[in-house]
Structure formats: structure tokens, C-alpha cells
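RECORD TYPE: inverse folding
INPUT: C-alpha cells
STRUCTURE:
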């Protein structure tokens, strides 16, 4: 994800979030919101494809903030 922040799909992010205990909330169908109880970062991502790299970087910031680091 860090090496290639392009061409990610929302269902892939939801799968990753589930494995990391990140809460997923769908807001009206057009956006998906990711949050974790140990972080003040809330990431809102448009559900359409493709997801822009800026949103992937925000998702990675959330993962880093909760203390999970991947190489």
C-alpha cells in the first residue's frame, strides 16, 4: 500500500480495517468513514473507484497513529 497507493478499492480497505479493528461506517452510500478508538484521526473516503492516493495516505496515517507499522 505504501509502495503503490494507486488502484485500491474500498472493499480492500474495509478488509484491512476489519483485521486491524478499525471501525468502518458507511455514510449515505457515497463515502466510507474509517476510525479507531485509540486515534483522533477520522478518514472519510469516497466509495467510487479508483480511490485517489491522498486517501490511501490518510488511511495509512490512521494505521500509523494506532501504532501499527508495516514495511
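DESIGNED SEQUENCE:
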Amino acid at each position: 500500500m505504501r509502495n503503490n497507493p494507486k488502484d485500491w478499492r474500498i472493499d480492500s480497505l474495509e478488509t484491512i480495517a476489519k483485521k486491524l479493528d478499525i471501525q468502518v461506517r458507511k455514510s449515505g452510500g457515497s463515502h466510507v468513514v474509517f476510525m479507531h478508538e485509540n486515534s483522533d484521526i477520522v478518514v472519510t473516503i469516497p466509495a467510487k473507484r479508483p480511490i485517489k492516493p491522498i486517501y490511501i495516505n490518510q488511511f495509512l496515517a490512521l494505521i500509523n497513529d494506532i501504532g501499527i507499522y508495516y514495511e
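NOTES: The chain has two helices and three strands.
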